[in-house]
């Protein structure tokens, strides 16, 4: 399970340090793809295969199903960290997530995945969600959580 929040800087070549706490659980090779809310998702191979199986099971006759399959698979790349624990964020994914070179990024644990955010997007997201925490909590209570 991935937990925590870590701030790093993306370097001039588009690389980000993967926090040591995340490296072991993520594994040697992992998948990066477009995420929801203008962030990127990192999945270990097993978690990616589980998601991919669910996406494959969606009915192709439904336009929404085709759209979500395209969304996740079109941006997906298999990556590995270098000896310094850095991984390269592909240019198309940096553009999607509004991440620019030499900018601060935030990596957050989100159970079975890691999310990579531009620091500005993460701040905006938290400003929007924070006031709704009480409402979200009430919704969770209705779901039995």
Tell me what you see in this structure:
- The structure is a single chain.
- 40% of the residues lie in helices and 27% in strands.
- It is an alpha+beta fold and 145 residues long.
- It has a single domain, classed as Transcriptional regulator MraZ domain (Chemotaxis protein chec), CATH 3.40.1550.20.
- The strands form two sheets. A six-stranded antiparallel beta sheet has the order 1-7-8-4-3-5.
- β3 (29-34) and β4 form a beta hairpin.
List the helices and strands and how they pair.
Layout: E1 5-9, E2 15-17, H1 20-26, E3 29-34, E4 40-44, H2 45-56, H3 63-74, E5 77-80, E6 86-88, H4 91-96, E7 104-110, E8 113-118, H5 119-129, H6 133-142
Antiparallel strand pairs: 1-7, 2-6, 3-4, 3-5, 4-8, 7-8
The H-and-E topology, N to C, reads as: EEHEEHHEEHEEHH
Which stretches are low in confidence, meaning pLDDT under 50 for 5 or more residues running? none
Question: Major beta sheet, specifics?
Answer: 6 strands, antiparallel
List the domain count as a whole number: 1
CATH secondary-structure class = Alpha Beta
The CATH topology comes to Chemotaxis protein chec
Quote the beta fraction.
Answer: 25-35%
CATH superfamily: Transcriptional regulator MraZ domain
Question: Kindly, what is the distance between the CA atoms of the first and last residues, rounded to a whole number of angstroms?
Answer: 18 Å
Architecture per CATH nomenclature, i.e. the level-2 architecture: 3-Layer(aba) Sandwich
Shape: globular
Give the count of helical stretches. 6
Percent range of helical residues: 40-55%
The strand line-up of the biggest sheet is 1-7-8-4-3-5
> What is the total tally of β strands?
8
Mean pLDDT: 94
Radius of gyration: 16 Å
- The structure class reads alpha+beta
Subcellular location: Cytoplasm, Nucleoid
InterPro entries: MraZ, MraZ_C, MraZ_dom, MraZ_N, MraZ_sf, SpoVT-AbrB_dom, SpoVT-AbrB_sf
Protein name: Transcriptional regulator MraZ
Keywords: Cytoplasm, DNA-binding, Repeat, Transcription, Transcription regulation
